Amino acid sequence: MACFTRRNFLHGAAATAALSGLASRPARASARTIRHFWWGNPERDRRTFEVIKAFQARHADIEVSGETIGWGDYWTKVATQTAGRNMPDLVQMDYRYLFEYVRRGALQPLDGFIGKSLMIGDFDKAPLEGGMVDGKLYALNIGSNSQVMVYNSRIFQEAGIDVDVLDWSYEQFAQVCEKITAKSGGKMKGSDDLSLTIDMLESFVRQNGREFYDAEGNVQATVEDTTAFWQYWADLRKAGVVRDKGKTIVLSPPLSDTGIVTGETAMGQHWSNQLVGIQALMKDEIGAGMVPKMANGRPGQFIKPSMFLSLSRDSRDVEAAMLYMNDWVSDPQITAILGIERGIPCSPRVREALKPNLKPVEVLSVNFFDAIQGKVAPVPPPPPKGAGEVRDAFMRIGTDVVLDRTKPADAASMFIEEAASIIERAR
Amino acid sequence: MKRFIARNAPGYLFLLPWFLGFFLLALGPILASLYLSFTRYDMVNAPRWIGFDNYTYMFTRDRRFWKALEVTFHYVALSVPARLIMALGVAMLLDKGLRSIGVYRAIFYLPSLLGASIAIAILWRQLFDANGVVNQTLGYFGIAGPDWLTNPDTSLYTLVILAMWQFGSPMLIFLAGLRGIPRDLYEAAEIDGTPRWRQFTRITLPLLAPVIFFNLVLQTIEAFKTFSSAFIISNGSGAPADSLLFYTVYLFNEAFKFFRMGYASALAWVLLIIIAVFTAIAFFTSKYWVHYENERD
C-alpha cells in the first residue's frame, strides 16, 4: 500500500480538478470561455467535440467547454443549473421544453443579433418559426425532425415483408409484427412495445382528429383515445409479438438498449435525427417508415423543429457565444462536420453543400424527409407548462398497464384526469 | 458551573467543527427552506407567499405523497431490523477472539464505505438485472428468477438486501459494545450450565441494550434518508410503477425536475418532523427496555 504522501495527494487533487473541468488548460491562454451543453449519443458527441476543436483553431482567444450527457439526465441537470443561476452559455433545447424555459425567463431572445452576428437571413422560414415564443426568436433551429418507424431491412427482406411502410395501417403493422415473430420462432419480436412512448399516443390522438393539447394548453386527448391506444399494444403484447415487458418498462433507455439495436426486435419508434446514431450501433442496414395510419388515413406525425440552440440568461460572454452559434449553423467547415446527425439543417446553402458527401444512412434520412413532405400533419400548438410532468405520469401509469396490474380503460381515465390536474397546477 | 465546564469542555471542543459547519453553512439554508415551504417558488421567478397551501395540498390531494410515505415506511420497517440483526450476528462472530480480527473487521466494513456510492447502486442494478448474476445463479438450480428490479413486487426487496449488506458501521459499534460486557458474567453462566441461547437473551441483549438503542435510532434516521441507491436503481423516477418512490426521490423530483422548490421544501420539513417523531418515540420507550450499567452513578 503506497503511503499517502503530500505529493501523492497533490497529484490526486490535480487529477480531480482536471476531471471536474476546473483546471485551466495551460496550453491556451484564453481569457474568454463559453460553455455549450447538449444531450447526445456517442456519434453526436464525437462530431460536436470536433466542431469545438475547429472553432477554437479559428478563434484562439475563445475557449469552448463542451458538456454532454444522455437525454434522460439532461433535463434534470439543466434544471439544476437554471436554479443555481449557472446555466451554460449555450444549451440545446427541445420543442417540448422550450416554452417552459422561456416562460421561466431562462433564455435570451436572439432577434437583436439577426443580421449583425447571426446571419440567418436566407434560412427556411417555417423551421425557424418553430423556435419563436410570443413573437420572439428564442431558439435557433439546428435540425428538423419527424417520428420514424425504424426497421431492420435484412430481417424485413428475410421475412418477405413487402408492405409500403410510408403508407400502412395499424393492422398491417400488427401483421408485420406477427410475421417476424413467427418467422424467427419467437426469438425476434416484431417491435418494441410502444405503450410508454407518449409521442405515439400524441400521433394516435391526432389521427382521431384532436391534438393532445389545444391552443390554450388544455388536455384535449380523451379517455377513449388513451384506452384504445393502450388496448392496441396490450393485444400485441398478449399475442407475444412485441418486446418483453421487463425491457419495456425501463424508461428512456439509451439507444444502445433499444430493441432494434440489441437485435431483440425488428422495429422501433424513433426520431429521424436518431437514424445516424442507430445505424452507427448496428451491422444490418436500417430502413425508415412512417407512423401507421387508421382507417381514416389522417397523418399522425408532423415535421418538428426538433433541436435548437439557445442562448441562456446566464451567459457572461454573449458576443463569443453568438460567434460560436453563427459558425454552428452557417460555416461550411463546421456544418460539414455536423452533417445531418442532429436533423435536416434549415439553411438551403448548407443542405446543398452537404449533399455530395452524405453516407448511405444520411441519404436515407434525407430521402425519408423528402418522401414525407406533404404527408404530415401541421405543427401542433406549443405544449403548455407541465407537459414534461404529464409525460412522466403517462409512463408511470402506463407501466401498470404493461405489467397487467391495471386495465387500459381504468388507467386511461386515471391518466387523463391526472394530466388535467398537472396542467391546472402548473398554471 | 465550573465543574460542568471542566467535565464537558473536551466534548464541546470535539464538537466545535460540527458547530462551526452547522452555524456557518447549514443554518441559513435550513431557515430559508422553512420560509420557502410557505411559498410557490419555481427557482427563476421570486417566491410567492401562499401560506399553508403546500401543506394542505400534500395531505389532502397529493396521492404520490402518500405513495412515497408508504414505500419509505415499508423500507424502514424491513431494512432497519434486517441490518441490525445482520450487524449483531457478524459482530458476535468476530467477538470470538479470532486471530487477525482487524482484517476481518476491515473486510466486513468495506461494503458500508462503498454502499452509499453510485458505483454500488449500478452494480446492484446489474446483479439483479433480468439476466444478471442473481438470476443466472438461480438458473443453475432450475429456478426462473423474476425481473427483480422492473417488477414492482420485488424491486423494494433488492434495496432491503442492499441495506442489509451495508451492516459495517452498526457492526463496529456492536463489536465495541460486546467487548464492554464483562467476561466473568459468561464464565459464571457457564459454570451454572446456562445454555448459549439463554446466555444471549439474559446477558448479551440486556447489557447491549444501550448500544442497540443507539444503533436503532441512527439506522432509522439513515433509512428514512435513503436516496442515492433508490435514485440510481429507479433511474431517478421511482419506477417501476412508483414502487421505488422513496420520499427523498419524490422530493428531489418535485424540486429539480418540476421546479416546485416551495413544495419540495414543505416535503422536507414534513420528513424532518416524521424523523423527529420516530426518534422521540424511541427515546420515550427506551426507559422501559434500555438500562445503563452506571445509571446510579
Q: Can you say what the CATH homologous superfamily of chain B is?
A: MetI-like
In the predicted model, the low-confidence regions of chain A spanning at least 5 consecutive residues are 1-29
Q: What do we call the CATH homologous superfamily of the largest domain in chain A? A: Periplasmic binding protein-like II
For the record, the CATH architecture of chain B stands as Orthogonal Bundle
SSE-based structural type of chain B: mainly alpha
Average pLDDT of chain B:
86
Binned strand content of chain B: under 5%
Overview of this protein structure:
The complex is a heterodimer of chains A (427) and B (297). With 427 residues, chain A is of the alpha+beta class. Chain A has two domains: 29-144 and 305-368, Periplasmic binding protein-like II (D-Maltodextrin-Binding Protein, domain 2, 3-Layer(aba) Sandwich); 147-301 and 385-426, D-Maltodextrin-Binding Protein, domain 2 (3-Layer(aba) Sandwich). Chain A contains 18 helices and 14 strands. In chain A, α9 (223-239) crosses α18 (408-426). The longest helix of chain A is centred in the last third of the chain and has 19 residues, at 408-426. Mean pLDDT of chain A is 87; it is low at 1-29. By secondary structure, chain B is mainly alpha-helical. Chain B has one domain (63-289): Orthogonal Bundle (MetI-like fold), CATH 1.10.3720.10. Helices cover 72% and strands 1% of the residues of chain B. Chain B has helices at 2-36, 53-60, 63-94, 101-115, 118-127, 133-140, 155-165, 168-179, 183-191, 196-224, 228-233, 247-256, 261-289; strands at residues 39-40, 48-49. In chain B, strands 1-2 form a two-stranded antiparallel ribbon. In chain B, β1 (39-40) and β2 (48-49) form a beta hairpin. The longest helix of chain B has 35 residues, at 2-36. The A-B interface holds A 72-73, 75-76, 79-80, 82-83, 104-106, 244-247, 249-252, 388-389, 392, 395-396, 399-400, 403, 405 and B 42-45, 130, 147, 150-152, 235-242, 256-259, 261.
